[in-house]
Structure formats: C-alpha cells, structure tokens
Amino acid sequence: SCSYQRFVNCYRCFYKLQPQLTRSIYDQFISQLQVSIKEEIQEVKNEGNLEGLFSSLDKIVEEAKDREEPAWRPSGIPEEDVRSTMVPYFLKHRSYLRRVLREKEEENRKVAESVLMGRDRIAELQQLIQARQQAWQ
C-alpha cells in the first residue's frame, strides 16, 4: 500500500536490515493508531454528549424532509442574518397590530355613536321634563 511505502521510505535503513520486522512494526503501529483514534473519538463523543446531539440532529433532519422551502443558513454577515430573520417577523407583527388597531377604531366609533345617541336621548328627556314642568305650572 501507499502508506506502507511512505513508512518504508522513512525507515529505509531499518527496512534493508529486516524487512519482515519493518512490516510487523508498521502493522502494529497502524492498529494501535486506529485504536487510539477510535478511543479519542469516543472520548470526544462522551465529553460533548455528541450521541444525544447527533440523535436530535437526525430527528431535525427527519422532520425537515417534508419541507419544501430550504432551511435557513447564516450568510456570515450578521446584519443580513438578523434582517432576514427579523424583518418577516416584524412585518407579520405590524400586520397584526394594524388589524387590532382597525378593530379598536371600529369599536371606539360604535361607542362614540352610542354616547351621542345617549346624549341626544338625555337632551330629549330634559326638554320633555321642562315642557311638562312648564305645563304643570
């Protein structure tokens, strides 16, 4: 293999004296390196709780399979990232506030009409009272 040839090139003098032993040392070195790497990966997984994170990531990927729009990705420009996230929210909120404002204005208009009708009725009753009072005197 290519990696064995590089190993031999590094230890050429030793390889010329005992090629079998060089191959054995190489095989042992590679197997220990693989074990060491696997242990290191497992340690990183355990320290960072990567198993839980990977399972939650798998769940997110599974849930996103049916979505048609692409997932949000940061652009690297914080202002644009905030704008792309916040502007739709603020536009939706502004639309909601406008709708609530229209409803409150309509409600206030109806209350103002009923107040005016009540004042007119009070004025009519006051005139009626005065007319009856004058008629009685």
Quick description:
This protein has 137 residues and is an all-alpha fold. The chain contains five helices and no strands. Keywords: Cell cycle, Cell division, Centromere, Chromosome, Kinetochore, Mitosis, Nucleus.
Strand content: under 5%
| Helicity level | over 70%
Radius of gyration: 42 Å
Cα separation of the termini = 128 Å
H/I helix tally: 5
Average pLDDT confidence is 88
Note the overall shape.
rod-shaped
Total number of strands = 0
Determine the structural class based on helices, strands and strand pairing.
mainly alpha
Order of helices and strands: HHHHH
Uncertain residue segments: none
Largest sheet entry: none
For the record, the count of structural domains works out to 2
Organism: Daphoenositta chrysoptera (varied sittella)
InterPro entries: PMF1/Nnf1
Subcellular location: Chromosome, Centromere, Kinetochore; Nucleus
Keywords: Cell cycle, Cell division, Centromere, Chromosome, Kinetochore, Mitosis, Nucleus
